[in-house]
Amino acid sequence: MPTDHRSAQEHADLFRRLSRSSFRSKFKLTRADTAYLETKGLETIKSHAADFIKSRIAPAGPRNDGKQTPMRGHPVFTAQHATATCCRGCIAKWHGIAQGRELSAEEQRYLVSIIMAWIERQRHTSSTSMP
User: Fold this and answer.
1) Pick from 44, 66, 108, 113: CA 20 to 30 A from residue 95's CA?
2) 51 vs 12, 15, 25, 76, 100, CA distance in Å?
3) Which pLDDT tens digit goes with each residue over 17-69?
4) Residues 39, 49: contact at Cβ < 8 Å?
């Protein structure tokens, strides 16, 4: 059950909508991402996600908005593109959180929860699809 103000059903609805986007659904964790996850652990990855959201996304006018999240290089970056938490424009469109103001602590926690839920889904999918 999500720990923020959004219900489990709202999360499920979001993931259904994201799966229908050809752009969003093309993102998958690579073997290197999965190895990094296993080495660092989920709590560290969650901490990285919180740091990335706070420093790159949360400000009212993020530096290089729309281009601040690399496409690869860290599992959180991949997850941000897959979950439309990569820039304020995508967040406004997909999550209904307005641009032009700093994100609240609750909104930041929500975005991190979506990122981590996607990572967990990917881990589960990759572990069940391996021979």
Assistant:
1) 44
2) 25, 23, 24, 10, 20
3) 999 999 999 999 999 999 999 999 999 999 999 999 999 999 999 888 888 88
4) no
Q: Which of 86, 71, 72 is nearest to 33 (CA)?
A: 72
pLDDT tens-digit series, residues 103-121: 999 999 999 999 999 999 9
DSSP string, 69-95: S-SSSSHHHHHHHHTT-SSHHHHHHHH
Question: What H or E segment, with its residue span, contains residue 43?
Answer: helix 42-52
Looking at residue 56, the DSSP 8-state letter turns out to be I
The C-alpha atoms of residue 96 and residue 122 are separated, in whole angstroms, by 24
- Selection from 75, 63, 64, 61 nearest residue 27 by Cα: 75
Using CA atoms, how far apart are residues 129 and 131, in angstroms rounded to an integer? 6
